[in-house]
Amino acid sequence: MTGADRKLLSKLLLTGMWAVIVCIYLFPYVWMVLTGIRRPVDTLTMPPRFIFTPTFDGFDAIFREVKFQDYLLHSVVVAVSATLIVAAVAAPAAYALTHLRMRGGIFLAAILVARMVPGIAIVIPIYLAASRMGMLDTYAVLITIYTAFNLPFAIWLLRGFFREIPGEVREAAIIDGASELQVFLRIILPLLSAGLVATGVFVFIAAWNEFLFALTLTNAHTATAPLAIIGFRNEYGVQWAAIGAASLMISSPVVVFAVIMQRYLVRGLTMGSVKG
User: Fold this and answer.
1) Do the Cβ atoms of 209 and 26 come closer than 8 Å?
2) Among 43, 169, 203, 210, which lies 20 to 30 A Cα-Cα from 154?
3) Residue 51 gets which letter from DSSP?
């Protein structure tokens, strides 16, 4: 076997390996799409039936009978609000921990520990507190919880991005007479746009997909989209077409958002990966 043959064989094996990995990752999403556009009998048939007559009864059921658009609206309000608040708070906090003279080591360790606390461990105290304050089944309680849980991660991630910006940039601006606020808003923040977008994408996805606190703290008025799927399994059985359609509607905005922001996401992750 010549060197050219070995190189060709290596490329074929590598291509085949990546094709298998792509199929493994995409299969759940493809199966979800198929479940949403076919009849339950086609979904449950063994072996699986890939040739069928498409139907949109699942989408009709979730939008006409369940009013799924209301759940989507609740998710949009909560996820977007939490993302904007986290970005507005995490950016100056990360800047202060990176550039200002302060003892941030203990604080960084504290916020990382807070991020590692499982939600199930504190959901009951949070429920009792929200009940006493009259905040159950409101946007405010979900936005507050999602902000609190995602803020430590956002600060930690943005701190890595801030450390990638040379300190000489800030020092030169201060020598020219700029205040810390002016340096942050007019110089550092524009340079950090990619990292800020990357952080926002992660926070948005976490808030959009969250289930436990939404299930515990909300009811009909502010229930988010993931909670709607629970109603498709009842005493009459499992409505597979509705579940597939709802899952597609929940996942599609996140996928589209990530694809649109892909350039900023990759640039931001690369920017924050060199230094810790």
Assistant:
1) no
2) 169
3) S
